[in-house]
Design brief:
This protein has 310 residues and is α/β, with parallel strands linked by helices. It is built from eleven helices and ten strands. The protein has a five-stranded parallel β-sheet, sandwiched between helices. It is elongated and about 80 Å long. The chain binds iron/sulfur cluster. The site of iron/sulfur cluster has 10 residues, from helix 4.
């Protein structure tokens, strides 16, 4: 008999590891698919897949993902996390691969009711519909509480061996982790910057001031202290590593400020207005730079180096 093949959205978190195990236990051939964007990487997925010897396909969809994050059809969760749209986008990609590589169905580690925004019954149905996977999307954890899927109807998957987990309690997942001897795993949604409230505030502000922002602008959001002057941004490094990173991300038109005679932060001015930077912005940037150097803070003899990136 031809082997049943499943493609699973694999983040490397406990839920995706367990969902893959549940299917593998039924003799199904499972392959993982994971994504990289400006807001999350594939490190956890790579680690988890390696440990359980799961073949893994990595897709970088940064540009497309950023476009969606700017304007998600179904809105954001608590922070700037557009989880419903994000899942739809991932599953659309999974569907393309399912068709191309002849998988029987797509699976996820979603649990009914685990996340109020994106995993309630309505949201799960919506995600299935919008990703055009109707009938071909299996959620092994909650399958018994959801509609029968096509692979279940075709006996490619044994429904009896699937689960009926719902809600936010992690008890049954923890018990399963013990059963499968899984000791280490990252926290749920760990690693996605979009669920971070502080990062979300920065991102929201950037979208309000400059919706055309690109990957480089998002990269800067992950570093330093941020100050706005109208549509001009001042970013101040908090340590040696950030100073280096900020300099690396500087691009044509940016201004870099450092103190010549004291150690301290590297400061970058990025002008989203594209008009001449007013003098008061330079003065403010210098003041902030000096303030965040404990050695220079109270000094009167600070000399600055101001360089425009050409
Ligand atoms: S937590 Fe992040 S990666 Fe996960 S669905 Fe939400 S936005 Fe996407």
């Amino acid at each position: 008999m031809k082997k049943v093949k499943a493609l699973i959205l694999f983040s490397g978190g406990l839920d995706s590891i367990l969902a893959a195990k549940i299917l593998m236990e039924q003799g199904i051939e499972v392959k993982g698919i994971t994504f990289e964007s400006y807001f999350f990487n594939s490190e956890n997925a790579k680690k988890g897949a390696k440990e359980m010897k799961l073949p893994l396909k990595i897709i970088n969809f940064s540009e497309e993902h950023l476009k969606m994050v700017k304007n998600p059809k179904y809105g954001y969760g608590k922070a700037m996390n557009p989880c419903i749209d994000c899942h739809i986008l991932m599953l659309k990609k999974a569907k393309e691969i399912m068709k191309k590589e002849k998988f029987n169905f797509v699976a996820t580690g979603e649990v009914l009711g685990e996340r109020p925004f994106s995993q309630n019954k309505k949201a799960l149905e919506l995600i299935e519909k919008e990703s055009s996977l109707k009938g071909y999307l299996l959620r092994p954890f909650s399958a018994k509480l959801l509609k029968l899927t096509i692979p279940e109807k075709l006996n490619q998957v044994n429904r009896q061996k699937l689960l009926d987990i719902s809600g936010r309690s992690r008890k049954r997942q923890i018990a399963l982790a013990k059963k499968y001897k899984i000791k280490e795993y990252p926290t749920p949604a760990g690693g996605c910057l979009l669920t971070d409230l502080e990062f979300g505030k920065r991102l929201k502000e950037l979208f309000q001031k400059y919706l055309k922002c690109k990957g480089n602008d998002i990269g800067l959001l992950k570093l330093g202290r941020h100050f706005w002057e109208d549509k001009i941004k001042i970013i101040v490094g908090r340590n040696e590593r950030e100073n280096k990173e900020i300099k690396k991300l500087a691009k044509k038109g940016d201004v870099l400020i450092e103190m010549k005679n004291y150690p301290g932060p590297s400061t970058l001015i990025r002008n989203y207005k594209k008009t001449k930077i007013p003098k008061k912005v330079f003065e403010r940037a210098k003041k902030i730079t000096q303030y965040y150097s404990t050695k220079a803070r109270a000094k009167k003899d600070v000399n600055f180096e101001v360089k425009e990136k050409l």
